Amino acid sequence: MQIKTFLLERNQSLNENTVECNLSESGAHPIALNDLLSDKEKSDLLALPISYGNTRGSNELRELIAAQYNCSAEDVIVTNGTAEANFLTAFALIEAGDEILVVVPNYLQLPGLAECFGAKVIPVHVDSVTEDITNNLSAKTKMIALCNPNNPTGKYMSKSNMDKIIELAKSVDAYLFVDEIFLKEENFGEPHESIYGQYEKTVVNSSLSKAYGLAGLRLGWTIGPKDYLEQVLIRKDYTTIAPSIISDYIATCLLANPAKCQEILELNTSKVQQRYAVFEKWAQEFKDIFEWDKPEAGAMVFIKYSLPIKSKNLMQKILQDKNTLIIAGEDFGVENHIRIGIGLEINDLKIALARVAEVIREIRANIS
Fold it and tell me: How far apart are alpha carbons 309 and 202 in whole angstroms?
């Protein structure tokens, strides 16, 4: 089976005007390198020899990442973004004949990779997650996979559900895979802790892309048990070999400076809150056909709509008619929904939302 090709289709359809109104992006607005490093750090960066780095990532960076999870640096492998971390997780663990229970809606990468590696992917819905997992567990269950906070909803899994999921994974000796890329991007409410450390067969992947607004660094990590990491290292030598030493250096500078980390997180939280206010005001016009929850994390809103059009067709119509991109709920396994990213600059967000509104009004007028 093939991985869903919506990203390929999207990229083939984009032009330079679409980029300005790209409502598919779900992370905080990017941070400039000049605002990230001190003068000395910039000077040291320019003097850095451009050589291979450590396959695992530098010792200093891994120690800084490990400190966030109360684990050892030996439990961490640095990757080229969470995308590589997720690929290596699938490559290392999933084999033909395995069954993978995937909590939906969900980011598309891991389920698609599981299918490519010959596994059977079984969706379990977040609204009935523990019941669905219980009903689908078997001796073939290799992994239970989820995003927490969730992509696309921006919601956290409740502690009671997470505790039950851990017990269910233990009952069949399955891996628990958790994509935590939005964990530190808390927009509304109290901060949450990583699930790592509550079950020995847990794999957690994350990066600096979303909460920190540093997607261009392509700097992520995977954390898990020793036997898993051994398999990841073998495969990493045949993929990217090592993270960029430039990205490794910049990430080390950031994580070694807690005050700067906090400053960036607070700035990006403020930006997301401002943009959510813009979205909320915009969406009031469509409250008769829209339903949504305020996202606890992530610069995105997952909207349920009542219009006589499939989400994929709605996405394509908005792209073709208004050169503006949203993500169809169908691609997340949930129809009659769309995901709108709100991480754009304020003016670009307003322009993009105005374009989407024109299409929504047209469709609604035709059914009145």
Answer: 40
pTM for the model: 0.91
In this structure, the number of other CB atoms found within 10 A of the CB of residue 297 comes to 30
The pLDDT of residue 1 is 37
CATH class (in words) of the domain with range 6-31+260-360: alpha beta
Cβ–Cβ under 8 Å, residues 182 and 106: no
Distances (CA, A) of 183 to 25, 70, 98, 154, 296: 17, 16, 28, 10, 10
| Structure confidence by residue, pLDDT tens digits, 315-327 | 999 999 999 999 9
User: Which residue do the tokens 């929850």 mark?
Assistant: 293
Strand partners, 248: none
Structure token digits, residue 259:
């005050």
Pick the closest to residue 142 from 200, 194, 93 (CA basis): 93
- Per-residue pLDDT for 48 more than 80? yes
Domain ranges of the chain: 6-31+260-360, 48-257
Q: How far apart are CA 47 and CA 28, in angstroms?
A: 30
Q: Are 297 and 181 in contact (CB under 8 A)?
A: no
Range in 61-70, 106-115, 196-205 the model is least confident about: 106-115
pLDDT per residue over 133-158, tens digit each?
999 999 999 999 999 999 999 999 99
Q: What Cα–Cα distance (Å) separates residue 93 from each residue in 127, 174, 186, 201, 231? A: 27, 11, 30, 11, 8
SS3 333: coil
DSSP 297: B
pLDDT at 7: 46
Which CATH number is 48-257 given?
3.40.640.10
